[in-house]
Amino acid sequence: MRRRAVLFDWDGTLVNSSEASYRCYVRLFGSFGIAFERADFERTYSPDWYRTYRAVGLPESDWKKADACWLEHYGAERAELLPGTREALERLRQAGRTLGIVTAGDRERVGGELRDLALASVFSTLVGSGDTAERKPHPASLLLALERLGVPAVDAAYVGDSPEDVQMARAAGVYSVGIPGGFPNRQALEAAAPDALVPDLGAAVDHLLALAGDGSSD
After folding, report:
1. Fewer CB atoms < 10 Å away: N or C end of the chain?
2. Beta strands of 80-217 (E only): which ranges?
3. What is the pTM for the complete model shown?
């Protein structure tokens, strides 16, 4: 299959946000009197941040306040693309692929980062937190993106850095490509057994184009 639509996770897959996320968690939990160190980040990390809240013992009654606090802290951070991201996306576009973002992150936050990075026009759809009631690994957000694009699951691929990304793609019937990112979930990503596990985004593009017989532009 040509996989004419390629959809991506955002944080950790296209954007180098691991350290920024860690710093924000330290500040956030500190404001609630909860110590949060590197080992806690490695132990509790999930793209569903409510799992992290629960794991560190933050009362559910404080979650709404914590969400606002995290976004405030993260707003002081500067989004940076992972090396080679812009070039990899351009290769897919030149090969005629339609691109989209499906993220667990706040939709307004991710949309703002896309604009700041001059990437908003690259993606034909953005599905983020709040667009569906369910969270990854439930397939609802990925299926919504495919519906908006008018592309069947069998003709799409999803690229992400977490086991939840792989599980979501599998549940939606979408080909999954895993790339290890900066978040502490590399072993879990491998254990999730994506259809393809490659070292970086450039290799993911090579793989997807080779599957379709388009080759890799060396």
Report:
1. C
2. 98-106, 125-129, 156-160, 175-178, 196-197
3. 0.91
Instruction: Give the C-alpha distances (Å, rounded to integers) separating 88 from 41, 84, 93, 94, 184.
Output: 29, 6, 9, 10, 24
Q: What is the 3-state secondary structure (H, E, C) of 10-76?
A: CECCCECCHHHHHHHHHHHHHHCCCCCCHHHHHHHCCCCHHHHHHHHCCCHHHHHHHHHHHHHHHHC
What dihedral angle (degrees, nearest 10) is formed by the CA atoms of 153, 91, 106, 128? -20
Can you tell me which residue has the tokens 């559910």? 60
Distances (CA, A) of 17 to 3, 60, 82: 27, 25, 9
What would the pLDDT profile of 118-172 be if each residue is shown by its tens digit? Answer: 999 999 999 999 899 998 999 999 999 999 999 999 999 999 999 999 999 999 9
Give me the residue label for tokens 């080759």.
Answer: 215
218: confidence class by pLDDT, cuts 50, 70, 90: very low
Return the amino acid letter for 32: F
Q: Which helix (H) or strand (E) holds 6?
A: strand 5-8
Give residue-wise pLDDT tens across range 89-113. Answer: 999 999 999 999 999 999 999 999 9
C-alpha to C-alpha distance for 70 and 75, rounded to whole angstroms: 8
Helix (H, G, I), strand (E, B) or coil at 162: coil
Radius of gyration of the chain (CA): 17
